Amino acid sequence: MEPIKVIHISDLHISDDLSHGDKWYDIPGRHGHNVKAFLALDAFLKTTEWDLLLITGDVSRIGESDSFVWVKDWLEGNYTIGNFTVGLNLSKSTVRKYLIVPGNHDRFGGNIWQGSLNLYNKEFPEVKAGSVESLTIRGCKVNIHLFDSTTSDGGFAGGKIEQNALVPKALKDTEIDIALLHHPFLHLPEHPRETAKDLKNSADVAAYMLYTGFDAIFFGHTHKRYIEQKSVKKLSRCLPDKRQQSSSDLRRAPKVILQMMENNTKIVNVPYRRTATKKGQLPTRKSYFDYLFFLMQGYELDDPSNYQYIREFYDQINNVPSDIRIQDMVNRAKQKEILISLAPSACQAKNTYCGFNIVTFRGFSNGQLDTSWNLVDFNGSNFQILP
Ligand SMILES: [Fe+2]
Predict the structure, then answer these.
(1) How many Å lie between the centroid of ligand 1 and the Cα of residue 10?
(2) Distance 194 CA to ligand 1 centre (A)
(3) pLDDT tens digit string along 272-295?
(4) What is the pLDDT of residue 261?
(5) 377 and 311, same structural domain?
(6) Could you please report the per-residue DSSP string of 113-158?
(7) Residues 325 and 347 both lie in one domain
(8) Same domain, 30 and 164
(9) I need a surface site. Which of 61, 76, 232, 358 has the fewest CB within 10 A?
(10) 303 and 349 housed in the same domain
């Protein structure tokens, strides 16, 4: 496979006041933009080779319609203010593409309380539950799975991914699968003060993201940077709720893996919610997942509701010849390595630094994606790749 170079930027926080007449205009403060950094970002992206630009939300300061117009015109076309013309002209490019998901600031609509994505969606496509963009880049299929983690009841910073967007998927070992969302779902070890608390259902999202089989997961929101490729087992040590770690494994891993199994027409009809016996007893999660797994293997088994007592349901499970395949699949899923890319803000005004990440996908060996990355920081006049 020819290497594929992906630029990951986040949290531009471009304001509707990007210019005044023919003058560029800085907006200071925590969520304003730094024009110098923006111009340098534009210059870097125009003079560097890359294949795909991924943007993980908060392109706007407070969600004013003009800020989205600025960003879209910059990405897809160009414009001149004073002595500087900026623009990536991506609408005219046949090889380079960009994909974007919204952040909590993109939902403000000129307010400081999350309202709706109406203004954002006038310029950028709505991210629907289960949205996937499939591209062929340098002969390799790259699937970008888009998630809207913003929510109208999220207050200032909060987020949530609706349950219907956490769709189980059968992913192929020979294709690159990247998940894109704004809010982090892990407590990253290098940022002890940044918790995954802003994402309300972060435990559920983490379990889903880690066990679906994505090769890479990109997010932003914290204005900090983290980039590593680690096994699911190691990443699950960064789960937001440590107490839920083992139960998340049980709750989610089997569900996701069961549903990922291909060539299984019963898959959609598998009842995930455990049913009780006539006496109201619920089976253990493990026995219930074993039951679902055996069902999908073609065994004819009865639901707990067909029994008076739960032990009769267990007897039925115990009589099925043991099958180690499910444990194998769970173990394989835990060993899979995922690239986690948290991009800092690329041009936000009051940041300790402005920067972004470059990820290079180099090919597969044994179903594992070979990746490398570069960190790029703004030095006051240019963006430079760190040594
Ligand atoms: Fe954010």
Answers:
(1) 9
(2) 12
(3) 567 899 999 998 866 777 787 777
(4) 58
(5) no
(6) S---SHHHHHHS----TT-EEEEEETTEEEEEEE---B-TT-TTT-
(7) no
(8) yes
(9) 76
(10) no
pLDDT, tens digit, for every residue of 223-247?
Answer: 999 999 999 888 888 877 665 555 5
Name which of 39, 109, 130 is nearest 67 in CA terms. Answer: 109
Q: How far is the CA of 140 from the centre of ligand 1 (A)?
A: 31
Shared domain for 308 and 356, answered yes or no, is no
CA of 198 to the centre of ligand 1 (A): 9
Helix axes 325-335, 245-260, angle to 10 degrees: 110
Cα-to-centroid distance, 228 and ligand 1 (Å):
21
Q: Are residues 287 and 349 in the same domain?
A: no
First to last CA, the chain: 26
Q: 124 CA to middle of ligand 1, Å?
A: 17
Q: What is the distance in A from the centroid of ligand 1 to the CA of 374?
A: 23
Q: What is the pTM of this model?
A: 0.86
Q: How far is the centre of ligand 1, averaged over its atoms, from the C-alpha of 283 (Å)? A: 41
**Is the per-residue pLDDT at 317 higher than 50?**
yes
**What dihedral do alpha carbons 27, 30, 35, 38 form, nearest 10°?**
-140
Domain residue limits at 32: 4-183+220-225+343-385
